[in-house]
Amino acid sequence: MRLALALWCCASLAYTAACAPAPQPTPTSASVSATAAPQPTPIPRSGSDHDLILATTTSTQDSGLLDVLVPLFQHRTGYKVKTVSVGTGAALALGARGEADVVLVHAPASEAQWMAQGNGTRRLLVMHNDFVLVGPPDDPAHVHGTASALDALKQIAVSGQPFVSRGDNSGTQQLELSLWQKDGIDPKSQPWYIESGSGMGQTLTIADARQAYTISDRATWLAFSGKIQLPIVVERDPVLLNVYHVMPVNPAKFPGVPINATGGQAFADFLVAPDTQQVIANFGKDKYGLSLFVPDAGNSESDLGL
Q1: Percent of the chain scored above 90 by pLDDT?
Q2: Which domains does the chain have, with CATH numbers?
């Protein structure tokens, strides 16, 4: 629990954001929900041993972390990384179809299932941060400072205040839906529940325009904090821990597909190397005064209380 507790004790810690639809007086799921998140177009394989396809989450992209790590990896190894930034569900699906060489995601239960299906060769703990519940400055659901994320979500539901979900089967949405389930609430049947079908940055932008609540990883929220007016209302609940693993794709499952297994393993090794872990530990300090991620290589999930 030592590393997890270190994160909870940190003070409150966003890349491109498209314009959101104009606010409506009474948003409903039917009138404002986006269509299901589009499936990413597979990146054609060049056949070169120097090209590597990384499927990862929008949070690693929107936070700016990949803008630091990918060039560093390319400079050190000579690989050329082609990044597909999508929700965790879509990233795992790309790997499960042999359309990526390595995946970096944050949904432990889905990752374990993906590994059990033989899709990956290894699953390495890389880092963690946490999720936060954010909402309008006037907090119409009166949940600010609530210790329990479950209690806060229940109050949002009771009050009928709008809530924007990513709606993209991302690790963030999987966490969110698990919380609703624990509350005994089916949000998708409610008029106040809005599905963006988008990544984290766009979802924050939509929630800001709608004056709605949403759940975000802390790093993306912080990166977007200068563009939106959605303060944190609930944080540091242990159920909001956000853990990232890297998993090279298993070439044995895809005979005839030129999976870059060597490159995938090289990227995984790079992420957990001590010097890269130090880069992760320092990421965000120059701009925000605190790191956006806590490095975890060499630790176990039990160290995080999982």
Answers
A1: 76
A2: 2-37+129-240 (3.40.190.10), 51-128+243-304 (3.40.190.10)
